[in-house]
Write a structure and sequence with these properties.
It contains four helices and seven strands; from the N terminus they run βααβββαβαββ. The protein is α+β, with helices and mostly antiparallel strands. The relative contact order is 0.14. The chain binds coenzyme A.
Length: 155
Amino acid sequence: MIDIIEIIDETQKMNITDEILHKLPNWFGIESSIQEYMKDVRDKIFYAAIFHGKVIGFICLRHVNPFTAELFLVGILEEFHRQGIGCMLIGAAEEYLTKNEYKFFMVKTVGDSSDDLYYARTRAFYRNVGFFPLDEFKEIWNEQNPCLIMVKTLS
Ligand SMILES: CC(C)(COP(=O)(O)OP(=O)(O)OC[C@H]1O[C@@H](n2cnc3c(N)ncnc32)[C@H](O)[C@@H]1OP(=O)(O)O)[C@@H](O)C(=O)NCCC(=O)NCCS
């Protein structure tokens, strides 16, 4: 059985981010980016997925403005993919966002002009949970990592 719990403690948020992202090298292969993420998650809403007392995934949300929140980061250990845990984390996030009257939920990810097969899976997940592609920008990250902005409305 999987539990989704909110993490408040900043050190705990950093440690979970550290552990999970280092175990997902196909998506998070750049050490300096992981270090940045570890700092950036501290002041953000954060939920962890727990299985038998062990953290197996998390989701982190960024306040953009009173109407829009961003899915800042999500990661689940690979052996637990395709078991509905991503959907559970999105569910917890959206419960928080609707309670706090956000209208839009956005996410930035690698767009489909990239041939990265791992991010193709990530986009399939985002589509499945209701995000639609808005536009792709090569200027936000770089030519090799075209940044696709996806969005969904919250009700
Ligand atoms: C993206 C991620 C969070 C999805 O979590 P998950 O627990 O595997 O997703 P779910 O099991 O809830 O999937 C829900 C639906 O999304 C779609 N989906 C998820 N993964 C998919 C894949 N690899 N290929 C195609 N569709 C996929 C499916 O429709 C799936 O439903 P189904 O399994 O009944 O067909 C997880 O794969 C992950 O941690 N990926 C690596 C990190 C990452 O991509 N982070 C985002 C970048 S910031």
